[in-house]
Amino acid sequence: MKIILLGPPGAGKGTQAKSISNRYSIPHISTGDIFRMNISQNTPLGIEAKEHMDKGHLVPDEVTINMVKDRLAQEDCMGGYLLDGFPRTVFQAESLQNFLTERNEKLDTSLLIEVPMEFILERMIGRRGCQSCGASYHIKFNPTKVEGKCDVCGSDIVQRKDDVEETVRERLDVYERQTQPLIDFYKERNLLSTVDGTEAINEVFESICTILGSKK
Length: 216
Ligand code: AP5
Ligand code: MG
Ligand code: ZN
Hints:
- The chain is globular, with a radius of gyration of 16 Å.
- The longest helix is centred in the last third of the chain and has 15 residues, at 165-179.
- The chain has a domain at 2-26 and 79-116 and 168-215: Rossmann fold (3-Layer(aba) Sandwich).
- The protein has helices at 13-24, 31-40, 44-53, 61-72, 90-102, 117-125, 165-179, 181-188, 201-213; strands at 2-6, 28-30, 81-84, 109-114, 127-130, 136-138, 157-158, 192-196.
- It is of the alpha/beta class.
- α2 (31-40) packs across α3 (44-53), α4 packs parallel to α5 and α6 crosses α7.
- It has nine helices and eight strands.
- The protein has a five-stranded parallel beta sheet with strand order 2-3-1-4-8, sandwiched between helices.
- The protein binds BIS(adenosine)-5'-pentaphosphate, magnesium ion and zinc ion.
- Magnesium ion (MG) binds next to α1.
- Monomer.
- Pfam families: ADK, ADK_lid.
Protein backbone atom coordinates (compact mmCIF):
# COMPACT_ATOMS: atom_id res chain seq x y z
CA MET A 1 0.00 0.00 0.00
CA LYS A 2 1.10 3.56 -0.73
CA ILE A 3 -0.37 6.03 1.69
CA ILE A 4 0.08 9.72 2.47
CA LEU A 5 -0.73 11.19 5.86
CA LEU A 6 -2.05 14.74 5.76
CA GLY A 7 -2.91 17.04 8.61
CA PRO A 8 -1.73 20.08 10.51
CA PRO A 9 1.31 20.05 12.80
CA GLY A 10 0.34 18.11 15.92
CA ALA A 11 -2.54 16.24 14.26
CA GLY A 12 -0.99 12.92 15.26
CA LYS A 13 0.60 11.92 11.95
CA GLY A 14 3.78 10.56 13.54
CA THR A 15 1.87 8.83 16.34
CA GLN A 16 -0.49 7.04 13.94
CA ALA A 17 2.27 6.36 11.41
CA LYS A 18 4.14 4.13 13.85
CA SER A 19 1.06 1.94 14.36
CA ILE A 20 0.09 1.87 10.67
CA SER A 21 3.61 0.95 9.66
CA ASN A 22 3.60 -1.99 12.12
CA ARG A 23 0.13 -3.21 11.20
CA TYR A 24 0.67 -3.09 7.43
CA SER A 25 4.44 -3.81 7.38
CA ILE A 26 5.33 -0.78 5.28
CA PRO A 27 8.16 1.67 5.99
CA HIS A 28 7.23 4.93 7.72
CA ILE A 29 8.91 7.77 5.86
CA SER A 30 8.79 11.07 7.75
CA THR A 31 10.57 13.95 6.03
CA GLY A 32 10.70 15.78 9.38
CA ASP A 33 12.44 12.77 10.99
CA ILE A 34 14.93 12.50 8.11
CA PHE A 35 15.75 16.20 8.42
CA ARG A 36 16.14 15.90 12.21
CA MET A 37 18.44 12.90 11.80
CA ASN A 38 20.58 14.90 9.38
CA ILE A 39 20.64 17.83 11.81
CA SER A 40 21.83 15.60 14.65
CA GLN A 41 24.61 14.24 12.39
CA ASN A 42 25.49 17.72 11.14
CA THR A 43 25.35 16.73 7.44
CA PRO A 44 25.16 19.42 4.69
CA LEU A 45 21.46 18.56 4.26
CA GLY A 46 20.94 18.94 8.01
CA ILE A 47 22.69 22.32 8.09
CA GLU A 48 20.48 23.60 5.27
CA ALA A 49 17.25 22.15 6.73
CA LYS A 50 17.89 23.53 10.23
CA GLU A 51 17.93 27.09 8.99
CA HIS A 52 14.33 26.75 7.77
CA MET A 53 12.97 24.39 10.42
CA ASP A 54 14.04 26.53 13.38
CA LYS A 55 11.94 29.37 11.96
CA GLY A 56 8.95 27.09 11.34
CA HIS A 57 9.32 27.47 7.56
CA LEU A 58 9.41 24.75 4.93
CA VAL A 59 12.67 23.38 3.59
CA PRO A 60 12.87 24.32 -0.14
CA ASP A 61 10.94 22.01 -2.48
CA GLU A 62 13.92 21.00 -4.59
CA VAL A 63 15.93 19.75 -1.60
CA THR A 64 12.95 17.92 -0.13
CA ILE A 65 11.75 16.31 -3.35
CA ASN A 66 15.18 14.94 -4.27
CA MET A 67 15.57 13.51 -0.78
CA VAL A 68 12.19 11.77 -0.95
CA LYS A 69 12.76 10.38 -4.44
CA ASP A 70 16.04 8.82 -3.27
CA ARG A 71 14.29 7.29 -0.30
CA LEU A 72 11.37 5.92 -2.33
CA ALA A 73 13.74 4.28 -4.79
CA GLN A 74 15.19 2.10 -2.03
CA GLU A 75 14.46 -1.59 -1.88
CA ASP A 76 12.27 -1.56 1.24
CA CYS A 77 9.75 0.72 -0.53
CA MET A 78 8.99 -1.81 -3.27
CA GLY A 79 6.01 -3.19 -1.34
CA GLY A 80 4.61 0.22 -0.46
CA TYR A 81 5.20 2.98 2.07
CA LEU A 82 3.62 5.50 4.35
CA LEU A 83 4.57 9.14 3.79
CA ASP A 84 4.31 11.42 6.83
CA GLY A 85 4.91 15.14 6.26
CA PHE A 86 5.34 14.84 2.49
CA PRO A 87 3.98 16.24 0.23
CA ARG A 88 3.49 19.62 1.84
CA THR A 89 3.12 21.92 -1.16
CA VAL A 90 1.17 21.53 -4.39
CA PHE A 91 4.50 21.41 -6.24
CA GLN A 92 5.65 18.50 -4.05
CA ALA A 93 2.34 16.71 -4.67
CA GLU A 94 2.67 17.15 -8.42
CA SER A 95 6.26 15.88 -8.33
CA LEU A 96 5.13 12.81 -6.42
CA GLN A 97 2.34 12.14 -8.94
CA ASN A 98 4.90 12.39 -11.78
CA PHE A 99 7.32 10.09 -9.97
CA LEU A 100 4.56 7.50 -9.51
CA THR A 101 3.34 7.77 -13.10
CA GLU A 102 6.88 7.29 -14.45
CA ARG A 103 7.07 4.07 -12.47
CA ASN A 104 3.59 2.93 -13.40
CA GLU A 105 2.47 3.12 -9.80
CA LYS A 106 -0.32 4.85 -7.97
CA LEU A 107 -1.31 5.98 -4.50
CA ASP A 108 -3.92 4.03 -2.58
CA THR A 109 -5.08 7.05 -0.65
CA SER A 110 -4.17 10.15 1.27
CA LEU A 111 -5.46 10.15 4.82
CA LEU A 112 -6.33 13.47 6.38
CA ILE A 113 -6.20 13.52 10.19
CA GLU A 114 -8.56 16.37 10.95
CA VAL A 115 -7.91 18.33 14.14
CA PRO A 116 -9.24 21.85 14.74
CA MET A 117 -6.68 24.53 15.56
CA GLU A 118 -7.81 24.92 19.18
CA PHE A 119 -6.47 21.42 20.02
CA ILE A 120 -3.13 21.88 18.36
CA LEU A 121 -1.23 24.20 20.65
CA GLU A 122 -1.71 22.03 23.75
CA ARG A 123 -0.65 18.94 21.83
CA MET A 124 2.47 20.54 20.47
CA ILE A 125 3.67 22.22 23.61
CA GLY A 126 3.18 19.01 25.65
CA ARG A 127 4.85 16.81 23.07
CA ARG A 128 8.08 15.01 23.89
CA GLY A 129 9.99 12.72 21.58
CA CYS A 130 12.76 10.17 21.55
CA GLN A 131 15.87 11.29 19.71
CA SER A 132 17.04 7.72 19.18
CA CYS A 133 13.98 5.93 17.80
CA GLY A 134 11.58 8.77 16.98
CA ALA A 135 8.76 7.61 19.28
CA SER A 136 6.39 10.45 20.17
CA TYR A 137 4.82 11.10 23.59
CA HIS A 138 2.73 13.72 25.33
CA ILE A 139 3.12 14.78 28.96
CA LYS A 140 -0.67 14.54 29.46
CA PHE A 141 -2.21 12.48 26.64
CA ASN A 142 0.46 9.82 26.13
CA PRO A 143 3.06 9.88 28.91
CA THR A 144 6.05 7.57 29.07
CA LYS A 145 5.96 4.78 31.69
CA VAL A 146 9.17 6.05 33.30
CA GLU A 147 9.41 9.84 33.40
CA GLY A 148 11.85 11.20 30.84
CA LYS A 149 12.71 7.79 29.31
CA CYS A 150 11.47 6.29 26.04
CA ASP A 151 9.19 3.23 26.46
CA VAL A 152 10.60 1.63 23.32
CA CYS A 153 14.35 2.07 23.69
CA GLY A 154 14.99 3.68 27.10
CA SER A 155 16.75 6.77 25.68
CA ASP A 156 16.13 10.26 27.05
CA ILE A 157 13.11 12.04 25.64
CA VAL A 158 13.29 15.70 24.70
CA GLN A 159 11.19 18.61 23.47
CA ARG A 160 11.58 19.52 19.81
CA LYS A 161 13.21 22.88 19.21
CA ASP A 162 10.34 23.98 16.94
CA ASP A 163 7.67 23.13 19.54
CA VAL A 164 7.86 26.47 21.36
CA GLU A 165 4.71 28.56 21.04
CA GLU A 166 6.00 31.22 18.66
CA THR A 167 7.37 28.68 16.17
CA VAL A 168 4.25 26.52 16.46
CA ARG A 169 2.14 29.52 15.44
CA GLU A 170 4.39 30.11 12.44
CA ARG A 171 4.14 26.42 11.44
CA LEU A 172 0.35 26.57 11.65
CA ASP A 173 0.35 29.62 9.43
CA VAL A 174 2.61 27.89 6.90
CA TYR A 175 0.30 24.86 7.01
CA GLU A 176 -2.75 26.95 6.19
CA ARG A 177 -1.08 28.77 3.34
CA GLN A 178 1.02 26.05 1.74
CA THR A 179 -0.25 22.62 2.75
CA GLN A 180 -4.01 22.96 3.19
CA PRO A 181 -4.52 23.28 -0.61
CA LEU A 182 -3.45 19.63 -0.86
CA ILE A 183 -6.79 18.61 0.63
CA ASP A 184 -8.52 19.79 -2.54
CA PHE A 185 -5.71 18.43 -4.70
CA TYR A 186 -6.38 14.88 -3.47
CA LYS A 187 -10.14 15.32 -3.22
CA GLU A 188 -10.29 16.25 -6.91
CA ARG A 189 -8.37 13.07 -7.73
CA ASN A 190 -10.65 10.96 -5.58
CA LEU A 191 -7.75 10.11 -3.28
CA LEU A 192 -8.83 11.66 0.01
CA SER A 193 -10.02 9.86 3.13
CA THR A 194 -10.65 11.73 6.38
CA VAL A 195 -10.52 10.68 10.04
CA ASP A 196 -11.52 12.63 13.12
CA GLY A 197 -8.21 13.22 14.89
CA THR A 198 -9.77 14.59 18.08
CA GLU A 199 -10.60 11.10 19.37
CA ALA A 200 -8.24 9.15 21.62
CA ILE A 201 -5.08 7.80 19.94
CA ASN A 202 -6.29 4.16 19.73
CA GLU A 203 -9.71 5.22 18.42
CA VAL A 204 -8.13 7.27 15.66
CA PHE A 205 -6.06 4.20 14.78
CA GLU A 206 -9.18 2.01 14.58
CA SER A 207 -10.85 4.49 12.22
CA ILE A 208 -7.74 4.49 10.04
CA CYS A 209 -7.68 0.68 9.91
CA THR A 210 -11.33 0.64 8.83
CA ILE A 211 -10.52 2.98 5.95
CA LEU A 212 -7.36 1.12 4.94
CA GLY A 213 -9.09 -2.24 5.25
CA SER A 214 -11.50 -1.14 2.55
CA LYS A 215 -8.59 -0.14 0.27
CA LYS A 216 -6.76 -3.46 0.37
P1 AP5 B 1 7.35 17.52 10.81
O1 AP5 B 1 8.28 16.81 11.68
O2 AP5 B 1 6.65 16.79 9.74
O3 AP5 B 1 6.31 18.30 11.73
P2 AP5 B 1 4.76 18.66 11.52
O4 AP5 B 1 4.10 18.40 10.24
O5 AP5 B 1 4.74 20.07 11.97
O6 AP5 B 1 4.01 17.68 12.36
P3 AP5 B 1 4.39 17.19 13.74
O7 AP5 B 1 5.44 16.16 13.67
O8 AP5 B 1 4.66 18.39 14.59
O9 AP5 B 1 2.99 16.59 14.21
P4 AP5 B 1 2.40 15.13 14.02
O10 AP5 B 1 1.17 15.28 13.18
O11 AP5 B 1 3.42 14.14 13.59
O12 AP5 B 1 1.92 14.86 15.50
P5 AP5 B 1 2.42 13.81 16.61
O13 AP5 B 1 2.01 12.43 16.23
O14 AP5 B 1 3.84 14.04 16.97
O15 AP5 B 1 8.11 18.74 10.12
C1 AP5 B 1 8.96 19.58 10.86
C2 AP5 B 1 9.61 20.59 9.93
O16 AP5 B 1 10.42 19.92 8.95
C3 AP5 B 1 8.66 21.48 9.13
O17 AP5 B 1 8.23 22.60 9.88
C4 AP5 B 1 9.56 21.84 7.94
O18 AP5 B 1 10.47 22.85 8.30
C5 AP5 B 1 10.35 20.57 7.70
N1 AP5 B 1 9.69 19.69 6.73
C6 AP5 B 1 9.20 18.43 6.95
N2 AP5 B 1 8.65 17.92 5.85
C7 AP5 B 1 8.78 18.86 4.88
C8 AP5 B 1 8.39 18.92 3.52
N3 AP5 B 1 7.72 17.93 2.91
N4 AP5 B 1 8.69 20.05 2.82
C9 AP5 B 1 9.36 21.06 3.39
N5 AP5 B 1 9.74 21.08 4.70
C10 AP5 B 1 9.46 19.98 5.43
O19 AP5 B 1 1.45 14.28 17.81
C11 AP5 B 1 1.61 15.56 18.42
C12 AP5 B 1 1.39 15.43 19.94
O20 AP5 B 1 0.03 15.11 20.21
C13 AP5 B 1 2.20 14.29 20.57
O21 AP5 B 1 2.63 14.70 21.83
C14 AP5 B 1 1.21 13.13 20.69
O22 AP5 B 1 1.50 12.27 21.76
C15 AP5 B 1 -0.11 13.86 20.89
N6 AP5 B 1 -1.25 13.18 20.27
C16 AP5 B 1 -1.26 12.53 19.06
N7 AP5 B 1 -2.50 12.03 18.80
C17 AP5 B 1 -3.28 12.40 19.86
C18 AP5 B 1 -4.66 12.18 20.16
N8 AP5 B 1 -5.46 11.52 19.33
N9 AP5 B 1 -5.12 12.70 21.34
C19 AP5 B 1 -4.30 13.39 22.19
N10 AP5 B 1 -2.98 13.61 21.94
C20 AP5 B 1 -2.47 13.12 20.79
MG1 MG C 1 5.48 14.23 13.11
ZN1 ZN D 1 13.17 5.58 21.77
